[in-house]
Design goal:
This protein has 291 residues and is an alpha/beta fold. It has 10 helices and 15 strands.
Length: 291
């Protein structure tokens, strides 16, 4: 039995995890810590084999807190990445919030709650249809749905996933309320064992580069090491080292496996100019395919 730590049951992370493991879900034992720190620590401390980490979103960009945990707090290699649609829905009790004709009575909704990231993905919808409603942030979309379930008759609704609505005997009052149709989240599977359940023709490598302080033009030379070898970079992100103001490291995602000739030689060239290079993982990359 493979043990996997994931954010709250019924959340996008939960749905994304079940998508990754697919037909093998019967052999997976999921645990659901409430906080992302506890998700990381479950695997770092050996209580689970893997952790599921949302790391980047189409609308909100990188999740800085999760990136910092991956870099600064734990030593867990990336074993896989995949992209999953973040489809948010308005959830509540149909008996309270639908009118006699079966339509949604927006005026009856007094409060909407959700995770702040999910709420941000629905900003225009909320302004257009529910400007009168109080907005409240909670720890996860699944928690928001549970709070609505436990407070009937108050006109409360949640933004969350279809699976959470079903688990809590609530209704999807309005589906796909996100402001953009192309809202996807990139997830990482982190742990000490390679991911072998599924195969992918696409592979990536993620590295962390710390520049020498006294080497002008170091970033240009780093990028040149990839450029002249025609190695494609899918993401470059700077993050503060937290050691000194104005001191940054660079996270780079590379569309190539480490098991090639070109990539190790590029890394060796980067190290030769005095940069520190840390390999965060070389792993299969999966694209979402709608069932």
């Amino acid at each position: 039995m493979i043990k996997v730590a994931c954010l709250t049951k019924g959340s996008t992370s939960d749905e994304a995890a079940k998508y990754l493991f697919g037909a093998h879900n019967d052999s997976i034992e999921y645990t659901y810590p409430r906080m992302i720190a506890d998700v990381f620590l479950a695997t770092a401390e050996g209580r689970t084999d893997y952790s599921i980490i949302p790391i980047e979103n189409t609308i909100d960009g990188s999740v800085s807190l999760h990136t910092d945990w991956l870099v600064d707090e734990v030593n867990l290699p990336i074993q896989a990445e995949w992209v999953y649609p973040s489809i948010q829905n308005l959830i509540g009790a149909a008996s309270e919030l639908l009118n006699d004709a079966g339509g949604l009575a927006y005026e009856r909704i007094t409060k909407v709650m959700s995770h702040p990231v999910a709420m941000a993905q629905c900003t225009q919808y909320l302004k257009r249809h529910l400007p009168h409603a109080e907005l409240e942030h909670v720890g996860s979309t699944a928690e928001a749905v549970r709070i609505v379930r436990d407070n009937p008759g108050r006109g409360w609704a949640a933004i969350g996933q279809v699976s959470a609505a079903a688990d809590n005997n609530l209704s999807v009052l309005e589906s796909a309320v996100t402001d953009h149709d192309n809202n996807y989240t990139r997830f990482l599977l982190v742990g000490h064992e390679p991911f072998t359940i599924r195969e992918s023709a696409a592979h990536k490598t993620s590295i962390l580069i710390t520049m020498p302080e006294d080497y002008p033009g170091a970033l240009h030379q780093v990028l040149s090491a990839f450029s002249w070898r025609r190695i494609n970079l899918s993401r470059i992100e700077s993050r503060p080292t937290k050691k000194k103001l104005g001191n940054y490291y660079f996270l780079i995602d590379i569309e190539m496996s480490l098991n090639t000739v070109l990539l190790p030689s590029a890394i060796a060239e980067i190290e030769a100019i005095g940069c520190q290079v840390r390999i965060l993982g070389s792993y299969p990359s999966f694209k979402y395919v709608k069932a």
